[in-house]
Amino acid sequence: MSKRKWKKDEIDEYRKLKGAFFYYNKEDSNFLVQKAFGIGWTVNWANPISWVFVIIIVGVVLLRKYFM
């Protein structure tokens, strides 16, 4: 099955079945999705881009801490 961008109603249904704490959906190609509760966005942890994003942020924080 190929990845595709899921719509909001599909994401909400997935969260009802799997839980809403972390969004981890291998079939969804969205990088950012709306939070289940509150205002804002969260990442799809099954998307490799989200891990690259986290590694870059941690790398920048560590570089600033040790070299500035």
Short description:
Keywords: Membrane, Transmembrane, Transmembrane helix. The chain is mainly α. It has two helices and two strands.
Structural write-up:
Keywords: Membrane, Transmembrane, Transmembrane helix. Pfam families: DUF5808. It comes from Neobacillus massiliamazoniensis. InterPro entries: DUF5808. The chain crosses the membrane at residues 49-67. By secondary structure, this protein is mainly alpha-helical. The chain has one domain. It has two helices and two strands; from the N terminus they run αββα. Strands 1-2 form a two-stranded antiparallel ribbon. It is elongated. The N and C termini lie far apart (47 Å).
Give the secondary structure arrangement, pairings included.
Blueprint: H1 8-18, E1 32-34, E2 41-43, H2 48-67
Antiparallel strand pairs: 1-2
* SSE class: mainly alpha
Shape: elongated
The ordered H/E elements are: HEEH
Largest sheet: 2 strands, antiparallel
Strands of the largest sheet, in order across it? 1-2
Percent range for helical residues? 40-55%
Q: Which parts are unreliable, with pLDDT below 50 for 5 consecutive residues or more?
A: none
Could you tell me the strand content as a percent range? 5-15%
Span between N and C termini?
Answer: 47 Å
> Please, how many domains?
1
Give the averaged pLDDT, no decimals.
90
Evaluate the radius of gyration: 15 Å
Number of helices: 2
How many β-strand runs?
2
